[in-house]
Design brief:
heterodimer, A: 109 residues, mainly beta, four-stranded antiparallel beta sheet, globular, B: 115 residues, seven-stranded mixed beta sheet, 11 strands, 49% strand
Chain lengths: 109, 115
């Protein structure tokens, strides 16, 4: 599976919009871009998934440029409870997910 | 509809003992995955199983580790003769089908401590 690269950590303040970018230069045609969130001492939780262009759900938006070599997870108006580790993954038909170290987001009051 | 259940939540073993971790997938899910997470690191894929079959065990150590998902009952991850390096959080996930767009649902994990 293609490797993904994302910032190790980010800080933000309550009410701000947070954008976390993930690079995946060697993404394959059948790879889907998927983001998971993990709170301490819990299992990861699915946030959003996309293949191309823009996807939006009640939690976040995912922006994917035409070349698909990167993607940006956008969290609108974060709160303290959004402090977590966010993982960008590429998954394909094997459903074999490879987690990197993720981005540790800290939301401050 | 209960989520993925794992037990025990915490397990303490002495070196050389056996550890058995259990995972009950979400109702209707026949695909189970096991991951290991060391502190401050991401999850590492270990094994992917369907009912009674191991589909992909490329991430599982060749020795001391085994996994099963019987026709009846939970999936079991078994670690024989545990060593200190086996101390980690072990997460199980399940999905309804396999495939690119199918979400995996994770359990709360089992934290194994080897003394």
């Amino acid at each position: 599976l293609a490797k993904t690269t994302q910032p190790i950590s980010m800080d933000s303040y309550e009410g701000q919009e947070v954008n976390i970018t993930c690079s995946h230069n060697n993404i394959a045609t059948n790879d889907y871009i998927t983001w998971y969130q993990q709170f301490p001492s819990q299992g990861p939780r699915f946030i959003i998934q996309g293949y191309k262009t823009k996807v939006t759900n009640e939690v976040a938006s995912l922006f994917i440029p035409a070349d698909r070599k990167s993607s940006t997870l956008s969290l609108p108006r974060v709160s303290l409870s959004d402090t977590a580790v966010y993982y960008c993954l590429l998954i394909n038909n094997n459903n074999d997910m490879r987690f990197g170290a993720g981005t540790r987001l800290t939301v401050k009051p | 509809n209960a989520g993925v259940m794992q037990n025990p939540r915490h397990l303490v073993r002495r070196r050389g003992q056996e550890a058995r971790l259990r995972c009950s997938p979400m109702k209707g899910h026949s695909h189970v995955y096991w991951y290991r997470q060391l502190p401050e690191e991401g999850l590492k894929f270990m094994v992917y199983l369907q009912k009674e079959n191991i589909i992909d065990e490329s991430g599982m150590p060749k020795e001391r580790f085994s996994a099963e998902f019987p026709k009846e009952g939970p999936s079991i991850l078994r670690i024989q003769q545990v060593v200190r390096g086996d101390s980690a959080a072990y997460f199980c996930a399940s999905s309804l089908t396999s495939g690119s767009a199918d979400e995996q649902f994770f359990g709360p994990g089992t934290r194994l401590t080897v003394l």
